[in-house]
């Protein structure tokens, strides 16, 4: 009986982890920047992404903690690694594996001090939203949501406001999973950027928020029951947080990414960029350790990630466990 209980617990954990995820790769132009590998040792990892511990979600109880900032307290790694792009450029994020549906997508930025992002943990009312999308079409209970795109393709593309003043910034991607009634799950990750260009604009203070502080458990989009009678007929979803900054000094917008919408407004179908022949991409190896062999890395602990598409960590498991494939995007030591 004890064996079967342990087996059931392991299967339950695998099912839970396989339904969670985080941003694993950032693509700017033809350059890919590897994200953090949360289940591997921090030793030797260098990434534009802030360190975080697991694919597990944050919950309503975490809204008052600094962990809601970047899936940790926002503390920098001190590696000096950031990705450079011009204002008006796009940045594509690729998740390590699928997450729950339905879900909203929210993307924020924060200006770092002139000394750079390595000395900045994202505290204070410094965050402004550059994109968000929630319900795209249909009803809340039975409709198409922005997060469906990430479940289906694992990708999301957003444009940096063209008028944004140059400098060091954090970018924060967040999925808000709404599959459990009144018990949403938050999946935020942050990365360091250096924005270039001739822009001069910054968002007004009225659109700046802090983490924690931007969300409340009583916000309609958080205190939300996807299974309620009202959700079966409602055709708009109130996305939490401030309005999207549209790049002007005073105004807000309704979203600028590959799937855009606005809380309370009529939902719209997301537009996709035209498909064209893609140039060769370059993986920035300085932003992450190279794929390591079973003989040259610290074995991954049981239940840690050991493989999958875009994975760049150790593939050897600790004694007593084996690297087990769970789809194309995630393998786990079991």
From TrEMBL:
Cofactor(s) the record lists: Cu(2+)
Bias (Low complexity): 266-280
Molecular functions per Gene Ontology: cellulase activity; cellulose binding; metal ion binding; monooxygenase activity
Region span, Disordered: 243-280
Domain of life: Eukaryota
Secretion signal span: 1-19
Pfam families: AA9 (PF03443), CBM_1 (PF00734)
PANTHER family: GLYCOSYLHYDROLASE FAMILY 61-8 PROTEIN (PTHR33353:SF19), PUTATIVE (AFU_ORTHOLOGUE AFUA_1G12560)-RELATED (PTHR33353)
Protein name, as recorded: AA9 family lytic polysaccharide monooxygenase
